Amino acid sequence: MLKATLRSFLAHKGRLLLSALAVVLSVAFVAGSLIFSDTVTRTFDRLFASTSADVTVSPRNELDSQIPTGATPTLPASLADRLAKVDGVAAAHVDAAVENLTIVDRGNESVGPTSGAPTIATNWQPSERSPVKLTSGHAPHGADEALLDADTADRKHVRMGDTLTVQAQPGTFEVRIVGIATFTTTNPGAALLFLDTPTAQTRLLGSTAAATSISLDAAPGVDDAVLKQHVAAELGTKTYDLKTADEQAKDAAAQLGGFLDVIKYVMLGFAGIAVLVGVFLIVNTFSMLIAQRTRELGLLRALGADRRQVRRSVLTEALLLGLVGSTLGLAAGIGLALGLIKLMTAFGMNLKSTEMVIGWGTPVASFVVGVGVTFVAAYLPARRAAGVSPMAALADAEVAGLGRPLRVRGVAGSVVGLAGVAALGGCVAASKTSTAGSLLGLGVVLSLVATVIAGPLLVRPVIKVLGGAFPALFGSVGRMSQRNALRNPRRTGATASALMVGLALVGGMSVASASMSKSFDQQIDKTLGADFVIQNSNFVPFSPEVTDKVRGTDGVALVVRQRFTPVAVRLPDGKRIETTAAGYDPRLDDVAHLTYAQGDTAAALGAGHLAMDAKFAREHGVRVGSTVPVEFPAGRHAELTVAALTDQESAEGFGMQGGLYAGFGTIEKYVPGGQDSTLYVNAAAGTGADRLRPLLEKTLEPYPQVQVRDQADYKKLVHDQIAVLLYLVYALLGLAIVIAVLGVVNTLALSVVERTREIGLLRAIGLGRRQLRRMIRLESVVIAVFGAVLGLVLGLVWGVCVQQVLALQGLTAFAVPWATVVAVVVGSAVVGVVAALLPALRASRMNVLAAIAHE
């Protein structure tokens, strides 16, 4: 049996390789994501471990914001002198490092990275732990000298002696580059500017009395944990945050983990799609191969092979396929990880391919996925093969089960489908986002499974409609192609399902994104009343001098500032909610159209007052006039009165739970020294918006990171951000289509072999080569369009449910991107034509007599 199995596997290796490609792709994405994330994690672990101080003392920050606030927490620089006297401390260093700044060159181009990595200005204090070393020039001395890291200098063509402009929170200043510092470890992609310590404190923090942290070196023989205990005894643990080198490294690694998780989950998403679509391909391939080997299997049974041996033989072939696919996939995954490392290097993160990490878990996961998927996919065909009757096989009958009615599938599909409909219905009816989201996920899975199970039942009615015009358009060739697609509903359903999965995903996300875009457009039209919105391109807050410059621009009548701060609110129901609050200048009504359930803007922005979302207030027992305790950064507390309740029907999220905002004076009182996030600007009477825009752009020329946007620009910005998600979905679609095309090619190729004698007879009675090719192409097109129709219908249902979930967050508009729907259907027909090219060509080149004599 083993010899027979190996010979059978090698005899069909060409057909099996098409199935193996699906395994290769899925394993490649799994292996690539694991190798890449392990490599980055190991590299940064070394960086953090080698550069962290023995103990770091920093301001305690119990409040965190998902929205950049621009505020830099500080502590007294004099703390260094006090800590230098603590037992076990060899040295104490003042740190002055900020990221809320912009550096521009003489050409007014930003020197910072464009990859999302930070621009950091800090004080120069070389040590064994420094991530850089001075390689040319000299250390900075005085207010006008600075060092720049070598990677940034090379990328931005900055040379010794060049002058850079630094736009920091206390103000703008110029520095001359007097030295270049080269990274001794991995460059995380950041741009680093070094100043001497007094200059860094004054220019970046506003005073030599301030520091962002204190770094402590342990005396010889003193353990970091022991030193931390000594420092805690001196300072206490309530005011400052104390971390050893290990804790600091773990903290930094945890923050990096969020970035790595995004990449990992995206790649695992690709792997999941490849696995799911590959299952259909493998099931179809083995089912057809077994159907074609009916006589062979029957002969084995007649010679004494029992059912278990036949089943084991088919599963052994699947195991061999999985091993080959997993091995090739692991190799492809290493190449994919290498490509990602090169890509990250192009973005400024200098990872070394020679330090690539391939942990033991990577090959294990690769072979578990590859072999497991193939084994599971081949199990049902193997069971069917084991059911072959020796006499039926020798009589050239089909494999047992292929001709059975589809009643069992119908019942199972109906039961699962009803459960899916119930879950999706519950999602639409739910009033809480968390509940709706959970029911949506369950409904998506169940409806997908139900469609896959019941797909063969839909083949006859749907394909009769889709191919109904074929006989009229293409005559007998069109009629035969339609009947060929109807001949084996199970095979057609499985082939179409591979395409259906990707298109269902695209359909659902396209509806969701179109609805989001339309909702945001409506909200912008409804709420934004300003002529212009001024923001940083990356939404990071900007220096107050930008505000001053804008206010001084000719033709500006009104500037309303927006500033964010993290807060924690203690509510009457006993809950403590951490969120982000906004502060606004008076005359907010002139730049925004706000709807209030109670109160008004004047009350909301009054001293000691607070505005809150009406729905949030109801849920937590807050009324107008209620006083709520509010915690601000740096341990500041206030009792604020809720003076207005808003009814905006706008999306919360983005860290803005509760819709809290107050007057600018209130925010500035409890969070001094912050930075503005947005300016809302109105033109003066007699100055049109068209005339004011070039004046504002000229004013902001020295600040290349700051953008002037009107309503149309703001809508485009939102659309572009939503489009990023769509690009990911389209990439998943591309992968699904590639595997689906392989599936259609495989199915048609095996179908051609299966129908060799039939094709020979058709050719013998006068069917031309061109007609034969057309027949196979039409069969492929109708199968592909069938999959597209199922996918789009399913995707549209999902999209409606996703929109209902979004509606709970205030995104109430609904839109269907019909252009995308039409493009997908047309594209599916093209996919069908492309997939049929090789099988059709092969069929048309058959020798007629040899085909008729085919066994």
Automatic annotation (TrEMBL):
<feature type="compositionally biased region" description="Polar residues">
    <location>
        <begin position="111"/>
        <end position="128"/>
    </location>
</feature>
<keyword id="KW-1133">Transmembrane helix</keyword>
<feature type="transmembrane region" description="Helical">
    <location>
        <begin position="818"/>
        <end position="838"/>
    </location>
</feature>
<keyword id="KW-0812">Transmembrane</keyword>
<feature type="transmembrane region" description="Helical">
    <location>
        <begin position="318"/>
        <end position="340"/>
    </location>
</feature>
<feature type="transmembrane region" description="Helical">
    <location>
        <begin position="778"/>
        <end position="798"/>
    </location>
</feature>
<feature type="transmembrane region" description="Helical">
    <location>
        <begin position="411"/>
        <end position="431"/>
    </location>
</feature>
<keyword id="KW-1003">Cell membrane</keyword>
<feature type="region of interest" description="Disordered">
    <location>
        <begin position="107"/>
        <end position="142"/>
    </location>
</feature>
<dbReference type="InterPro" id="IPR025857">
    <property type="entry name" value="MacB_PCD"/>
</dbReference>
<feature type="transmembrane region" description="Helical">
    <location>
        <begin position="724"/>
        <end position="753"/>
    </location>
</feature>
<dbReference type="Pfam" id="PF12704">
    <property type="entry name" value="MacB_PCD"/>
</dbReference>
<dbReference type="InterPro" id="IPR003838">
    <property type="entry name" value="ABC3_permease_C"/>
</dbReference>
<protein>
    <submittedName>
        <fullName>FtsX-like permease family protein</fullName>
    </submittedName>
</protein>
<comment type="similarity">
    <text>Belongs to the ABC-4 integral membrane protein family.</text>
</comment>
<feature type="domain" description="ABC3 transporter permease C-terminal">
    <location>
        <begin position="732"/>
        <end position="848"/>
    </location>
</feature>
<feature type="domain" description="ABC3 transporter permease C-terminal">
    <location>
        <begin position="270"/>
        <end position="390"/>
    </location>
</feature>
<dbReference type="Pfam" id="PF02687">
    <property type="entry name" value="FtsX"/>
</dbReference>
<feature type="transmembrane region" description="Helical">
    <location>
        <begin position="437"/>
        <end position="459"/>
    </location>
</feature>
<dbReference type="InterPro" id="IPR050250">
    <property type="entry name" value="Macrolide_Exporter_MacB"/>
</dbReference>
<feature type="domain" description="MacB-like periplasmic core">
    <location>
        <begin position="17"/>
        <end position="229"/>
    </location>
</feature>
<keyword id="KW-0472">Membrane</keyword>
<feature type="domain" description="MacB-like periplasmic core">
    <location>
        <begin position="492"/>
        <end position="693"/>
    </location>
</feature>
<feature type="transmembrane region" description="Helical">
    <location>
        <begin position="265"/>
        <end position="291"/>
    </location>
</feature>
<feature type="transmembrane region" description="Helical">
    <location>
        <begin position="493"/>
        <end position="516"/>
    </location>
</feature>
<feature type="transmembrane region" description="Helical">
    <location>
        <begin position="360"/>
        <end position="382"/>
    </location>
</feature>
